[in-house]
Amino acid sequence: MATIGFIGAGNMAEAIIKGLISKKVYSCDEINISDISDNRLDYMKSAYGINAFKYNNLVVSSSDMAVLAVKPQIAGEVLESLDDFPCDKPVISIAAGLKIKKITDLLGDIPVIRVMPNTPALVGWGAAGLFANKKGEKHLPDAQKIFSAIGEAFVLSSEEDMNIVTALSGSGPAYFFLFMEEMINAAVELGLDEKTASELTMQTALGAAMLAKHRSDAGEKPEDLRRKVASPGGTTEAALKELENNQLGAIVMLAVSRAKQRSEELSEV
Ligand SMILES: NC(=O)C1=CN([C@@H]2O[C@H](COP(=O)(O)OP(=O)(O)OC[C@H]3O[C@@H](n4cnc5c(N)ncnc54)[C@H](O)[C@@H]3O)[C@@H](O)[C@H]2O)C=CC1
Ligand SMILES: O=C(O)[C@@H]1CCC=N1
């Protein structure tokens, strides 16, 4: 699929690039990156054999599609520094909170696809929400192809939904990692060795996610599967009561709402 260039080659860009190479969507020589950090450029070049550029403008001119993958707080100044941006070159922006309008205000009336990916893309299990402006719609199939190759891609019906998707699946892997950390800590504190606790936790998380995904096709929801684990008067019921009594639902609501609010705040910077 021609060439793709990443402006900013940090954690999320690396997850996407690794996924794209392993799924053979792009070959190494079709991927360009630029980054302010020489160390980062050296690392990415030697790890993946891709083309590394010191200047963002060079990545844009060498690529058919540009991916904006810098932090939202500096996205404005990075966009401003891109000279004479071609009006038909599509930009995929993965920056949390950054609105399409801000990009077109700075680069002109170009095709833009906003995407909120997540780091499991690194292993081909990403989840991404996509939304394109009018000019970007004809590039949506290409964007969907990219993000479907490294996970699942969902086209959103409004740009506003991007804030919720950011709080849900963009940040979501971190919520599950924290829950896993806490499960491992609890098992270790109760006396299990760390390696066994860690492996059992990871396999349980994987198994629960796989089961939920498979059974959703048959109309079974996570709450139905939860009931099948929790025998009346059994161990799971005892644990779930503690989670409920300690307001797990309210805590999750608070956390996801706060992430959504932060995404909205980042739209203003
Ligand atoms: N990490 C994640 O799980 C996700 C991140 N995102 C979004 O992806 C974007 C990047 O996030 P991360 O990869 O986590 O951050 P990061 O900090 O790992 O990567 C950003 C990269 O940009 C480089 N950079 C800084 N200034 C630059 C400049 N002027 N020109 C070129 N490169 C420059 C940095 O050296 C760094 O390598 C953010 O906008 C974030 O909202 C979206 C979804 C998930
Ligand atoms: O924490 C962040 O701001 C980014 C966006 C979603 C995941 N990481």
Describe the structure.
The protein is built from twelve helices and eight strands. Helices cover 55% and strands 13% of the residues. The chain folds into two domains: 4-157, NAD(P)-binding Rossmann-like Domain (Rossmann fold); 172-267, ProC C-terminal domain-like fold (Orthogonal Bundle). The chain is elongated and about 70 Å long. The longest helix is centred in the C-terminal third of the chain and has 23 residues, at 194-216. The mean pLDDT is 97. Strands 3-2-1-4-5-6-7-8 form an eight-stranded mixed β-sheet, with helices on both faces. Helix 7 packs across helix 12 (248-267) and helix 8 (172-189) packs across helix 9. It is an alpha/beta fold. (2S)-3,4-dihydro-2H-pyrrole-2-carboxylic acid (A1CAB) binds next to helix 7. One of its GO terms (biological process) is L-proline biosynthetic process. GO terms for molecular function: pyrroline-5-carboxylate reductase activity. NADP(+) binds at residues 7-12, 69-72. Keywords: Amino-acid biosynthesis, Cytoplasm, NADP, Oxidoreductase, Proline biosynthesis. Pfam families: F420_oxidored (PF03807), P5CR_dimer (PF14748).
